[in-house]
Automatic annotation (TrEMBL):
GO terms for cellular component: cytoplasm; nucleus; RNA nuclear export complex. Residues 32-99 form the Importin N-terminal domain. Keywords: Acetylation, Cytoplasm, Nucleus, Protein transport, RNA-binding, RNA-mediated gene silencing, Transport, tRNA-binding. GO terms for biological process: protein export from nucleus; regulatory ncRNA-mediated gene silencing; RNA export from nucleus. This is Exportin-5. Mediates the nuclear export of micro-RNA precursors, which form short hairpins. Also mediates the nuclear export of synthetic short hairpin RNAs used for RNA interference. In some circumstances can also mediate the nuclear export of deacylated and aminoacylated tRNAs. Specifically recognizes dsRNAs that lack a 5'-overhang in a sequence-independent manner, have only a short 3'-overhang, and that have a double-stranded length of at least 15 base-pairs. Binding is dependent on Ran-GTP. Belongs to the exportin family.
Amino acid sequence: MADQVAAMCEQLIKAVNVIMDAETSQMYRLEALKFCEEFKDTNSLCVPCGVQLADKAQPAVVRHFGLQILEHVIKFRWNNMEQEEKVQLKECAMQLLSKGTHSILEEESHIKDVLSRIVVEMIKREWPQHWPHMLKEMEALTVEGEAQTELVMLILLRLAEDVITFQTLPSQRRRDIQQTLTQNMESIFSFLMAILHLNVEEYRKLKGSPEHGLKARAHCRVSVATLNTLAGYIDWVSLVYITNRNCQLLEMLCLLLSEPELQLEAAECLLIAISRKGKLEDRKPFMLLFDDVAIDYILSAAQSADELAICKKSAESPSVEVVERRYIFLKRLCQVLCALGGQLCSLIGSDIDIDVHVPSNLIKYLEALLAFTKHSSQFLKSSTMATWGALFRNEVLSKDAVVVEMAIKYLKTSMTNFVKTGFPSKEDNPSCQYSRVDFDSDEDFNSFFNCFRAQQGEVLRCVCRIVPLEAFQIAAEWLHYQIASPIDIGDATSKMSEGLCSILSPSVVQWDAMTVFMECVTAQIFKSLEEEKLPIDQSVEMLQAVVNYETKDPLILSCVLTNVSALFPFVIHRPHFLSQVLYKLFNAITFEVAQENKAPWTRAVKNVRRHACSSIIKVCRDYPQFLLPCFDMFYNHVKKLFSSDAKLTHMEKCSLMEALVLISNQFKDFAKQKAFIDELMAPVAAEWTSDEMRRILWDPVTFLSFVGADQVVSEQSTYTEPAGLNRGRVTFCMYAMLGVVKRARWPADLEEAKAGGFVVSYTPAGAAIYRNPCAAQVLVMLPNLLALIRTHNSLFLPENMACLSESFSRTHDVMDVEKKLIFGLPQQVLDTPVYKTNLERMQGFFTLLYDNCLHIMGNVGMSLQQEFYTIDRLAEEIAGSVFLSLDHVPDHRLRPIIRVFLRQLVLSCPQEYYESLLCPLLGPLFAYMLQRLSIKWQVINQRTSINGEDEEEVVCHESQVTQEMLEEHMIRMLTREVLEFLAMSCIDKKTHETATNKEEIDEEDMIMDSVQTTYSAQPVADLTELGKCLMKHENIYMSLLTLSFTSLSWKDTSNCHRTASMVCWTLLRQVADSNLLPEAVTWFYASVFRGLQVHGQHDVCNTTLTQLAMLIYENLRPRYMDLRTMMTQIPNINVEALDQFDHRLIEPGSQKVGEKKRKEQFKKLIAGTVGKALCQQFRKEVHIRNLPSLFKKPKPDKDILSTEPIGLEALFSPENNDL
């Protein structure tokens, strides 16, 4: 046999060398792999060959393979091995641990890893029942040397990970091992602490002497391994082991923070310990870490690590780089401090009286936290935000004098932190060095900083609640400083205009930071202070300074406008100042850069003008009553702007009209407001309803020609006349219509509405029916709006697509901005092009045009109410425009129809119009979407199910792959949109949430009443009134049911979960009592099984689909025998268990089982339908047998229902304890 083993080992060594040789051809490598795998699976010489190959005289690669063979035997053959073979293999493994490795510093880490895995696999199968002294054997191994000690640490760590963290073994084995570990935890912890103490002490003694350098490194390696093992246990053991002996473990970890080679692992352990949750009284000992000694250790370690975190790249080079290990340690220390703050906030001011007081040296802790908040690394700064927020929100701590004092210091620090600096590509700030470690690109950093700034804003608002006046004073000083400072454009110049700032210019960065700071402070001060305490005089003085500040730089002017908006609420107290503020905003609307008189505006200029428009609308929306006395002045100024040579864009004109309409709502006089709106909209209505516009809007080819989409243009040509002007005319009418429809309203107070003539009648229920002063104008313009939507849908027909010129052939494609949003890619913000291309302009025009059409249609019902819904043949008009040519409309244009228009229509439609309007629209829509989405998902499934050979033959270009990904994303998003709309229309979410909350109460083994209700006690939502209306029509409810159940097997887990849990049974339950055909019922049931086949490997989907299948089976099985027939076709189903389940279900007198048990039984019955994830399909199953249980007494074989009746008091007598 020895010769056989030797010969086989020789072949295996050759095979391993072939596999690992880089020069080997693919064919030979595959043959060698096949040989090795077949040997592991079938050969009887595995154990002797594995042991021989694992000999330390062999090369590391061969040894690793030998150990893998042994691991494979234990994992897949253990259950079939004789007891003597198991004992022999165990002895071999222990011998390998003892003598089979090189010294700790020489041995390869992958050898140590596989050796520890072998032992852990045996422990998982035999301990504690058949290997009771395992822990003692491990302890004995540590005496043999550092290498063995490290291996023992790796074994204990992997055992904890497999049993507790990853739970990679059956529940009974896991329970046995976990309980045994818990029982022995005191000795395990003592053992780990002793090993750590011994090796740290030895390391400290020897690390300074050159002759003992290797020995010191060996002790250091063991210490690191022990700390890593401790980290694997600290996370889940009882807090007692962490805090006993006056927090000895935490004290030792704090001491190790000063050891450069051990500090990172010690910090990891400390972080895990301090982050533990649990009973507050158990966490009270953590307050010891607020002692001077512990805080000093943390501070000292942080200071020394910070000094060493940056080093020179080379002696000659002045440039520096970050030392990653030191920087990671700093991050861990920062997290430790933050976790400590979290414990402090939990313990101080809690509802439970645990006698914890504010630490006497809280100031030292806060100073340490502030030091991290001041650090150059933006990541470290951001890490402290949540802790500051918790401290400033805490009811007790926020009133403490130390915290109040620190709040002011924090304010001054946050002034620096709000400034966006530290881009990885720059060298203008110390934080750039750290950013290069933390972020891949400037876009990545920019995205992070936006989140960081939002966090800072939240904390700043908390600080303002504590020290509002001090915060306002700091904001005021900063504002005055910025106004007085000269503009510094830095070394970056604008692409268009010399002498103007770029987005990264020092002045812009400072103004931007100050502006965000000011917004946060002013927004909070009104909530924190009573009116008489507000600093009105000072704020109006600040506003005066802002209004008087003149700049020709668009980026800085944008910040100035934000400050005007932030300080505007103070104007309410000084009305005489209003006109100056309005003129400042009006001037910004017509802002231009001197050099731009002839050139097109840059994006920065457009943004300033748009910003000014938004500010005016915001002021008019929030303070319309205050602005009412200025209405005439406002209106005259707008008229003057409209008639002058000022180059107002159509959007700017419409914004001013929108602002006027907002103020006019305060007339509270229908006739007066109607007259105003008629006057305001007269030119728009005349343009929109003209014969010329009618001819253009009703014909797709004419429309394309009108907007210039059939013209060939070059990027150099000035593409403004006449097509650009024509697009502007259409855009202006759309914006104006949308602005009026959105903003014109009747008074909220019913008495004021009646007095003003807005109420025309009342519904039978007594609710007022209002009329809108804009109704006449909107209704006149509606026919051409519907015609434009119809024309737009027709643009996608092949004959109209052919009319697009070469320059605009991609007009209807998804815009690049949208693509980036869909793929989750960062937008270009730092180097945005100054101008759009002609194609981008055309794409933007069509996208905005269609969106605005749908926004108007979505808002018109809410705005006009009865006047809209009583339009003759409204359903036919909408269907003939919005739903026209949908087959050709691309997915990205179809989504807004549902999201923007139909959602709003359903939400605002009165119940009396459900039958006449919504049923004729939604019935055909859902039927169409079922057909469309089914075809699209079929294409995706075919694409993803191509076998490997075909896939290798297909060479895809990158653009083709990107297009396919985009299409799949769009279909996924459209599917979610449709099904969310279905759920919104039909399902009453309030009742669903209530039902779900009830379901969360665990009714373990609760005996059900003998009388069964018609339906199972499950979370079931109710239908909305619209849902009830739709379910009256057979063709509509079949579309709804088919769509819902078909979608369960589409490859979208979130959609499957939502639809299965909320929609499917709620709809099916409504028609369960009607005469559904058996074929329909079996199809619905089969659809759930198809869903389990696709999504069953995901726990969340598995639970909801199993629940749905059980509901259908329990409620419909008595009337539909075909459901049982389907169940018998499930692979590997236990027919006897199915018979028992059926018997309980159908026989009225049978013993009932608790809800939880029924679910478990049913889940086992349909387990054969659950599909496996791709990564699991070809994986070899590992079977670990249960051993005789150690801790659980067997339940007595006694049925409560069959025993003699006993009184309630007898249940609590000692002799009935076994019940």
